[in-house]
Specification:
By secondary structure, this protein is of the alpha/beta class. It is built from six helices and five strands. The chain starts with a helix and ends with a helix.
């Protein structure tokens, strides 16, 4: 089965009420990931750094956050630690999406409080499977 067929198949099972915030300083990356997630039936919001994400979190409580690690000013791991220290945000599932691929990188993400780790580049199917798994674990 092709990836586009699988996307169509999974789109019917995604909740239209679920919101995912995508955080990455690469605007094109955010656009592509949001297009994939929108096609799967998720509501998406974008932030291009952790400070924008925190401002966005003042407005909405997402069902999941996808964040890069390497970002200017406030890196993804520090951002996760901040969220985990705030009771109103501490339970939001967070998936790291990063080009950093070593075991040490994954361990650091887990220690910071990440719920999942996806290495760039990845397929839309890998993205969907990790999101589905993470959301079902936190249901």
């Amino acid at each position: 089965m092709t990836e586009s067929r699988l996307l169509a198949k999974y789109a019917s099972s995604a909740s239209n009420n679920r919101t995912i915030i995508v955080i990455d300083d690469e605007h094109a990356f955010c656009d592509v990931v949001c297009e994939i997630l929108d096609a799967l039936g998720y509501n998406t919001r974008q932030a291009y750094n952790a400070h924008q994400a925190i401002t966005l979190l003042q407005e909405i409580t997402p069902d999941l956050i996808l964040t890069d690690v390497m970002m200017p000013e406030l890196d993804g791991l520090t951002f996760i630690r901040q969220l985990r220290s705030e009771p109103k945000w501490s339970e939001i599932p967070i998936i790291i999406v990063s080009a950093k691929a070593t075991k040490a990188d994954r361990d650091a993400a887990e220690d910071a409080g990440a719920d999942g780790y996806l290495i760039k580049p990845f397929s839309s199917l890998e993205l969907e499977e990790l999101i589905t798994s993470t959301l079902s674990t936190h249901a």
